[in-house]
Each structure stands twice: as structure tokens, then as C-alpha cells.
Amino acid sequence: MEVFTDKELMRRWSRSVRAAGETVALVPTMGALHEGHLRLVELAAREADRVVVSIYVNPTQFDRAEDFAKYPRTLHSDLKALEGSPCKAVFAPTEMYLPGNTTWVTVDGLTEHLCGKTRPGHFRGVTTIVSKFLHVVEPDVALFGNKDYQQRRVLEQMVRDQDLPIRVVAAPTVREPDGLAMSSRNVRLDPTARLAATAIPKALDAARAAFDRGERGVAALSEPVRQALIAAGGTIDYVEIADDQTLAPLPSDRHVAAPAVLAIAAFFGGVRLIDNVALH
Ligand code: PAF
């Protein structure tokens, strides 16, 4: 496995792989790799001949400086974890933005809802950095996890709107045995908050079961989720049922009549967690 910190050397490696007739998959990450990332790498290896993992804690997508400072930086153990995986190259730049950078990539519409409401500038940071990675690595395929449902949808839209010749693959959410979605943030949960956070998958499963039994009322599906998270000690950022196409939240007096997603963001022990379940 090769490790690049330099953009040009990374690009050269990728171009030589593609010149030899092989395809490249990119798995962008911010490090602090866990089992969920490794499953993404395995999926990537089924989608292309060579897998590149990027590791970079992107400052421009953090809306709170404190969150950026606290984000785990574990490059040494990340590289160790990748050694046993099908990853063939790691792109771990120390800096991605040139001094005086004033260019941003933004996606309108989809970014205005859900996390976009309470995390100003977050998606602009994500789309800008992923666009930069796509220009450096020039992959055939890029993979994003469905836990970050809105992020995946926004990046698909960016790739499409920018005519990038890249296939975006959505990977299923990987869960702990007790159902909690795997996330680099989970290590920041103290034992009490970790236990309480299992209310998230339980509440989403219950909503999905109600949907499967025929319940279509937006309030009837989302209100029990809200109550369950509060009862478990969570602080809600949002619990919304959103239209799957636009991600616009459905008003609580409506019914789910088209494919939708029930998405939540909630704080447990001061750690912001997100998760979602498809309603279609
Ligand atoms: O999902 C993440 O880890 C990040 O948002 C991403 C896509 C690597 C961009 O920094």
C-alpha cells in the first residue's frame, strides 16, 4: 500500500493505474477509521480494480472550531487498519487549501434542509473538499455511506451537475451489534451516553415497523421517535420525514405518499449523532 501526501504524486499514481487499463475507486474519509470504513473499502474493491482511501480532517466543513479541534486524528492506526484491507493507496495530505483560497463549490436546494439548517457552511465545506479530491485522484467510482444520507445525496447532485465522469456508489449503513450506526464520533460517547444512544436505532426500527404495518401519518411516524430520543436523555436537533428527492421536510399534518426518509440528528452526552431509515 502506497501513502501519498503530495497531490501531484497521488494524481500521477492514479493516472498510471488508469493508463494501464485499470479502474480506480475513491473512499473519502476524515480518518479515525472503524469497521464501517473498512466495509466501504471492501465494497470499493468490488467496484474497481484499485482502491484509494483519502484521509483528511477538513477544516472547512466544521461549523464549530471546538469540534474540529476535538476530531480524532489517528493516522498511524488508520494506516495499520488499512494494511489488512484491499486498499492500494492512501492519500493523506497535510493541507488541501492553498493560502488565500476563495473558491467554493456549493449545491443549492438539497443542502438547505436537515443538517443544512443547523450547520451553516457545512455542506459547502464537504462539496468543496470532495470536489478537490475528485480532481486530484480522478477516480472512476467514489463511495459514500448512507448514514450520511444528505451528504451522499448532495455529492451525487454535485457530480451530476458538474458532469464529472464518476459513478457514485451508496454504501449501506454499518451498525454495531446493538444497532448504533458506526461513526468516528462514537468514541467520544461516555458509557452512559453510548448506552442511551441505542434509543436512536430502536426508535427508527419502530418507525419503520409502523410504516410497514401501513402507518403513513407524518406525525404518527415521527412523534414517537422524538419522544423516545427525549426519554433516553437525547437533545434533538431534528427529527424529520423528508421527501426522498428534494429532502424537504414533510409537514406534520401530511401523509407519506412518495418515497421518503426519516432522518434524525440528536446529541447524546454532547456528541451529535445522525441516522436515518428509508420509508418506501
Ligand atoms: O463523511 C466524511 O467523512 C466527510 O464528510 C468527507 C466526505 C470525507 C469529506 O470530508
- Rg estimate, integer Å: 19 Å
**Approximately how much helix is present in the residues?**
25-40%
- Overall structural class, as computed from helix and strand content, comes to alpha/beta
Major sheet: size, sense and barrel closure? 6 strands, parallel
Shape-level CATH architecture of the largest domain = 3-Layer(aba) Sandwich
Give average pLDDT, whole number. 97
CATH domain class of the largest domain = Alpha Beta
Alpha-carbon distance between the two ends: 41 Å
Secondary-structure element order, N to C:
EHEHEHHEHHEHEHHHEEE
Secondary structure: number of strands: 9
> How many H/I helical runs?
10
In total, the number of domains comes to 2
Q: Beta-sheet strand percentage?
A: 15-25%
- CATH H level of the largest domain: which superfamily? HUPs
Low-confidence stretches: none
Small-molecule binders here are: pantoate
User: Could you give the order of strands across the largest sheet?
Assistant: 1-4-3-2-5-6
Secondary-structure blueprint:
Blueprint (H helix, E strand, L loop, with lengths): L1 E3 L2 H13 L4 E6 L5 H13 L2 E6 L9 H6 L4 H9 L3 E5 L23 H4 L3 H16 L3 E5 L3 H13 L5 E5 L19 H6 L2 H14 L5 H14 L3 E9 L16 E9 L2 E9 L1
Parallel strand pairs: 1-4, 2-3, 2-5, 3-4, 5-6
Antiparallel strand pairs: 7-8, 8-9
Helix pairs in contact: 6-7, 9-10
The protein binds pantoate.
